[in-house]
Design brief:
Length: 252
């Protein structure tokens, strides 16, 4: 059983690091909606108290109406903070589970992050957004939404790009420094440049930057099916803290 105090803290810093445009509450269920970006973390219901499970059916219906207003499918993000009766309700109604994600943590001084080239964060959000879209292979229509999300991040953050003159951007990462914690987001290596050490290089550079700023603990989220990334992070010294997954009703 995960330590719920640690889960609550990482969930809170994760929300600050990847801010939704609209945040509403139904009890302790946090409804996050963002018209400009389709990320599930920005468009999901996040239950935050295992004991808050009253009137589930009516609350799910209310959430559905709010998501309809944003033209977003209703998605629940189920972490260890989600109440068991809600999980049972979703199971009984056939909601499928997808995109299981591992949350990992590491003490920076114990991680293997020294060595390799130093990279300073880029200052131009537009340059980073263009690089990120290229590396992830995303559609250019996401540019405005991603720019808005990055511009809304309040804790200090570093935007990292690994690139060369011949091939352009090869890997990107966002590192958000929140008190003693450094969160890594948007980690990616371009498809045709994988297994060349660029992912390792960008992670190390970002965490050295965070260490220099005073962070002592690093954390990240990675989909469990991404075996190469999970192996990379374990090799650096990260360990699993908890998992979450998304739930969506049939036919959505």
């Amino acid at each position: 059983m995960p330590n719920l105090a640690i889960v609550r803290r990482l969930e809170a810093v994760g929300f600050r690091a990847w801010p939704a445009a609209s945040i509403q509450y139904d009890g302790s269920w946090q409804l996050r909606l963002t018209a400009g970006h389709p990320s599930k973390r920005l468009n999901s219901v996040n239950p935050l108290d295992p004991s808050d499970h009253g009137d589930i059916e009516a609350r799910v219906e209310r959430a559905a109406r709010r998501f309809d207003a944003y033209d977003r499918p209703l998605v629940f993000r189920q972490s260890p903070l989600a109440p068991a009766p809600l999980e049972s309700y979703l199971d009984a109604h056939g909601w499928h589970r997808f995109d299981e994600t591992i949350v990992m943590i590491g003490i920076i001084d114990q991680l293997d992050i020294d060595g390799g080239m130093d990279h300073l964060p880029v200052r131009d959000i537009g340059r980073y957004v263009d690089a990120s879209i290229t590396v992830h292979g995303r559609d250019q229509s996401l540019k405005a939404g991603l720019t808005e999300v990055l511009s809304s991040i309040r804790p200090p953050n570093g935007l990292f790009v690994i690139e060369d003159e011949a091939n352009g951007p090869l890997a990107t990462a966002l590192c958000v420094h929140d008190n003693d914690l450094a969160g890594l987001f948007e980690l990616a290596t371009r498809m045709d440049s994988r297994r060349s050490g660029h992912g390792n290089e960008v992670v190390r550079a970002a965490l050295r930057w965070a260490r220099h700023r005073g962070a002592d603990t690093a954390w990240l989220q990675v989909e469990s099916v991404n075996e190469a990334a999970v192996s990379l992070y374990r090799g650096l010294g990260f360990g699993e803290v908890y998992r979450y997954a998304y739930r969506q009703k049939p036919g959505s």
